[in-house]
């Protein structure tokens, strides 16, 4: 009787889970475990639900327990691999996903996850084969095609444009995925660049990047922009006296907040990525954190800040006029704006104010940015050319700007 009851609860939990009712599904899975301790399916599904909620520590714990019960289960191994990848543990993720695929080769989701993990490891060429298998198995699913397009682009191989166009040709394509495919085509030079990166693309990118963001930027990419911008502020006599209301736009995990904190009586951060914000919250730096669009948020906080900083965030916007107007409006008179841009050499852009690069970030003509800033009422205090980070071993040229609201 207990066996039948546990099976019924498991089926009902899975049905609720599929409909998106995670809270009820998790309660049902826990009831299964009371009736049948160590049930591998219940443990695995609790791990899936925890991952969907963003609780990666719990997801990893449940997947470990599930595999202890059934170490050769391809389903459990695939879930473990996906969870490890989201947690930023990419090499163990690849190992788990390959183990899952050795037991169930036609799992399109595991193949896609393997390809994306390999791309994240910088092994885009190796990612192409599993992603090609994924699109063969699930040709009507847009996610594998989009992942394949990105892998081909990153590997410098032919076919990225064709894969992106295959996404756009699929019936019933969600608008967010369509926007991402068109954004990729624009980066390839096959379509006109939009005025900004799709919000869903930026959110997903940084949600996936959050667990390994700090280590990658500091150890692999030699990222020093927050410290350089803070030093430029101090050089202008803007003392880190702890007396200002400071807004950290695109705060990410809080690396920029560490550099800005000495100026702040109150420090607020804003980002599109909930997982980035979760990492920032753990630092204990911020008095408030907001998940919102930059331009929308600024419009609602008129004259609310003494210092607004945007460190390595404006490169996800093409047309900077709305953002600069919003920054100016959010500052008190005499308030200070400090931000970085990726620099576009005028010859490279052939007179364009900005271009979308192959790295899916915008590069801006500094002269045009300064003209927009002046139109918004921001007067230049300081400009410094500086490498922002390294990308594939090459320094990314940037410009640091400090301006004052007139």
Query: Helix proportion of residues, in percent?
Result: 55-70%
Q: How many helices does DSSP assign? A: 20
Shape designation: globular
Mean pLDDT figure: 93
Number of E-state strands: 9
Low-pLDDT residue intervals, each spanning 5 or more residues: none
* Strand ordering within the main sheet: 3-2-1-4-5-9-8
Beta fraction: 15-25%
Explain how this protein is built.
β1, α15 and β2 (264-271) form a beta-alpha-beta unit. The chain is 56% helix and 17% strand. It has helices at 2-18, 22-35, 40-53, 56-69, 74-86, 90-103, 108-120, 124-137, 142-155, 160-169, 175-187, 199-209, 213-220, 225-235, 255-260, 274-283, 294-299, 321-330, 346-349, 366-375, and strands at 244-249, 264-271, 288-291, 305-310, 331-342, 354-356, 362-364, 378-391, 394-405. The longest helix has 17 residues, at 2-18. The protein has 406 residues and is of the alpha/beta class. The model has no long low-confidence stretch (mean pLDDT 93). It contains 20 helices and 9 strands. Strands 3-2-1-4-5-9-8 form a 7-stranded mixed beta sheet, sandwiched between helices. A two-stranded antiparallel sheet has the order 6-7.
């Amino acid at each position: 009787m207990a066996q039948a009851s546990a099976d019924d609860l498991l089926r009902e939990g899975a049905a609720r889970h599929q409909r998106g009712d995670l809270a009820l599904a998790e309660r049902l899975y826990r009831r299964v475990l009371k009736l049948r301790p160590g049930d591998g399916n219940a443990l695995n599904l609790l791990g899936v639900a925890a991952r969907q909620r963003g609780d990666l520590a719990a997801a990893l714990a449940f997947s470990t327990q599930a595999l202890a019960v059934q170490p050769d289960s391809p389903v459990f191994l695939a879930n473990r691999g996906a969870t490890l990848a989201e947690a930023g543990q990419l090499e163990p993720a690849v190992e788990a996903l390959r183990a899952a695929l050795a037991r169930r080769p036609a799992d399109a989701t595991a193949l896609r996850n393997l390809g994306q993990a390999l791309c994240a490891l910088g092994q885009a060429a190796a990612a192409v084969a599993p992603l090609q298998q994924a699109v063969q198995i699930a040709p009507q699913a847009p996610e594998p095609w989009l992942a394949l397009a990105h892998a081909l682009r990153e590997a410098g191989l032919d076919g990225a444009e064709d894969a992106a166009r295959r996404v756009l040709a699929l019936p019933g394509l969600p608008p967010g995925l369509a926007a991402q495919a068109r954004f990729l085509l624009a980066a390839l030079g096959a379509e006109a660049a939009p005025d900004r990166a799709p919000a869903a693309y930026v959110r997903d990118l940084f949600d996936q990047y959050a667990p390994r963001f700090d280590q990658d930027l500091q150890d692999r990419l030699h990222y020093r922009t927050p410290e350089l911008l803070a030093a430029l502020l101090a050089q202008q006599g803007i003392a880190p006296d702890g007396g200002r209301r400071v807004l950290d736009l695109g705060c990410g995990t809080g690396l920029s907040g560490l550099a800005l904190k000495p100026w702040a009586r109150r420090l607020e951060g804003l980002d599109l990525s909930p997982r980035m914000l979760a990492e920032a919250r753990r630092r204990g730096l911020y008095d408030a954190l907001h998940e919102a669009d930059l331009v929308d948020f600024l419009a609602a906080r008129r004259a609310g800040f003494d210092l607004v900083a945007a460190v390595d965030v404006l490169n996800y916007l093409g047309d900077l006029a709305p953002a600069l107007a919003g920054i100016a409006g959010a500052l008190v008179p005499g308030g200070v704006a400090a931000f970085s841009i990726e620099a576009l050499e005028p010859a490279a852009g052939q007179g364009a104010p900005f271009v979308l690069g192959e790295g899916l970030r915008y590069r801006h003509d500094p002269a045009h940015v300064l003209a927009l800033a002046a139109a918004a009422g921001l007067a230049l205090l300081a400009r410094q050319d500086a490498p922002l980070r390294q990308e594939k071993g090459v320094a990314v040229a940037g410009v640091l700007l400090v301006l004052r609201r007139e």
